[in-house]
């Protein structure tokens, strides 16, 4: 596993790519397929957790940890754990009993590639392994992650859209704060990161809603217009495209303003905010 | 919540009943139904976790904690967490994609009473809340529970029977050891409890297999002959009724022998071993 921290002048695309490589290496080590009968569930866990993706949440963990000089090795455990929680929630949300989605990250969803039972178990396995990883890396982070997930498990079926949104925002927020938690950073710095994360999470969701309307399936790797077809309320269905985009851009500026007290050290996080609203996937 | 520890001469049935009452009270507090849209999933979590049952696993936690003088309040958190993990695994195992069971503890299974999506989410919620509870009560216990569950999530669909068995045994074993972990008990005492737990878990599974053949649905609250109908390999299908019962009784004697070094203090755990093989539900 590469443990080289980012060099000072590294570009955002290079840092994002390196974060993805390191996270995938960590995930690969955590999700070794055992020999024998158990292998199928592990294959499904790897299939979903290692599916092509931006690995934005792991990047946010590593970038916030970098801000406070936290060791990469420790932050990487938490980054991998957060990606596993993300993968778990996608697997269960895609199930026929839930959103019944066939396509995710340009590939068949877990239950289409394997079967419903394997997908249920793979999600359970990823959630549990994530807790083990985050709790092992730093008890404090493990505890806070558990609190976070517990709080957002409580969705009603009729409120799935609202919950998905809450989960997306909450997991992104936790990813941003994780570095500060690991570093036992002073209160005001942690609050600043939380403010950044809150605005970033909303901007991310707006961008998702815009991509559902304006994106292409080839780029996003999932069906376009799915939210509209399902009659889901989104930022775009409520605000319209123009106002939704303006709102997203405002949120990105707000997010960056929260980082002022970190001065130049937070440049990667600023770039991440710009990326979130301009991304095509 | 009643915090009265068991009096010294308390009978096993009375101690078991009190453990169940205390555990249910703790579960009730942990699983408060929030107002609004989220309430349905919480209702499903309560429906399954608070379904009528012996609460043997919580009893084992409280009895092993009692052995070392661990505070009831702390042990109770772990007892409730273990019952939630048990309930989570039952909910997901009963799903149509898995065992497709309609009846559990004499009532419709979670997905029959609610729906598949709610049952998936209720299981996820119970698993997560269990981690929060066990991690909150005592970080060490939380970490060990996570390791335990992570290890036994790795079942292949074709090996569900084997896994169920592993899960049953592993969760019972962890319940027995939890008191020793909470008390930071010396190595040899913990090893003794683990030996007891291992034999108890196997005896429990043999009794389950015997009840599937000889029990009545009215008593067990689930369909009789389900294992045979599903073509599952059980101790009874392999050994036959007579040898399976003899094996169960041997295991109970072995389990009790492991408790010798606790002398009279382990009397409740000895009674629990006798109960496991003679129970009718």
Written description of the protein model:
The structure is a homodimer of 281-residue chains. Chain A has 14 helices and 2 strands. Chain A is mostly helical and 281 residues long. Chain A has one domain (12-278): Farnesyl Diphosphate Synthase, CATH 1.10.600. Chain A has a two-stranded antiparallel sheet. In chain A, a hairpin with a 2-residue loop joins strand 1 (103-104) and strand 2. In chain A, helix 1 (12-30) packs across helix 3 and helix 3 (56-67) runs parallel beside helix 8 (160-182). The longest helix of chain A has 28 residues, at 187-214.
Task: Spell out the key features of this protein.
homodimer, 281 residues, two-stranded antiparallel ribbon, 14 helices, 2 strands
Q: Which chains have the largest interface?
A: A-B, 45 and 44 residues
CATH hierarchy: architecture of chain A: Orthogonal Bundle
Compute the CA-based radius of gyration of chain A: 18 Å
Portion of residues in beta strands of chain A equals under 5%
Q: What share of the residues of chain A lie within helices?
A: over 70%
Number of helices of chain A: 14
CATH C-level class of chain A is Mainly Alpha
For the terminal residues of chain A, how far apart are their CA atoms? 27 Å
CATH topology grouping of chain A: Farnesyl Diphosphate Synthase
Indicate the structural class of chain A.
mainly alpha
CATH superfamily of chain A: Farnesyl Diphosphate Synthase
Order of helices and strands of chain A: HHHHEEHHHHHHHHHH
Sheet with the most strands, sense and barrel status of chain A:
2 strands, antiparallel
